[in-house]
Amino acid sequence: MSDTPVITRQDRDELRRQGILLTSIEEVYNWGRSRSVWPLQFGLACCAIEMIAASMARFDIARFGSEVFRPSPRQADLLIVSGTVTKKMAPQVVRLWNQMPEPKYCIAMGACAISGGPFKQGYNVLKGIDRFIPVDIYIPGCPPRPEALLHGLMELQKKMRGEKLTGPDVPRNKQPDNPCEYPVPEFGAHDLEPAKNPDIWQPPAPVRPDKP
Q1: pLDDT of res. 34
Q2: Which pLDDT belongs to residue 6?
Q3: pLDDT at 12
Q4: Low-confidence residues in the chain, pLDDT < 50
Q5: DSSP conformation letters of the chain
Q6: What is the pLDDT of residue 2?
Q7: Which CATH number does the domain 38-159 belong to among 3.40.50.12280, 3.40.50.300, 3.40.50.720, 1.20.210.10?
């Protein structure tokens, strides 16, 4: 058993109040990344209006270091899928995701981006963007208010601060077998082909009650 003393979070907070900072390269690295997330200037439907409102003075997303909405996917590291993803737009969304550099993250904002929302039974609406690209944070609502987007951004920052630089628990972008680009669906005779990315999403298995 090691005799090295373990410094708890309470101890570190007390030391910080005394002007003594204890940290690591991993913590500083994740701290800087989590407070400089640059979203892509991209919206789809009603939720995009709430996303725009979050960047205005009343809500001020600049407090979180994310006021720089980049016009190019090559300069952004956060894709906020804000609104209804039609099957016509799904290939474009996946293409934008593929053009973003790693490490990159995705927020599904609103019921439509998560599951199709009120248009779920429509023949032309994708039942969730997570069928084609990995989603890090889900924000429910129809549409969610700007406060909900800010809360989702804070949850994403929390996730980023907990990421490891080495070891078996490294994030997606540091796994050599995990691709950074995903297949772009194309229009087939009746639907998108492929209809989903099996490496990203699998339909849930039906739960059948046991017969008496």
Answers
A1: 93
A2: 74
A3: 79
A4: none
A5: ---PPPPPHHHHHHHHHTT-----HHHHHHHHHHT---BBS---SHHHHHHHHHTSTTT-GGGGT----BSSGGG-SEEEEES--BTTTHHHHHHHHHHSPSS-EEEEESHHHHH-GGGTT-TTB-S-GGGTS--SEEE-SSSPPHHHHHHHHHHHHHHHHT--SSSTT--GGG-TTS-SS-PPPEE-SSSEESSS-TTT--PPPP--PPP-
A6: 55
A7: 3.40.50.12280
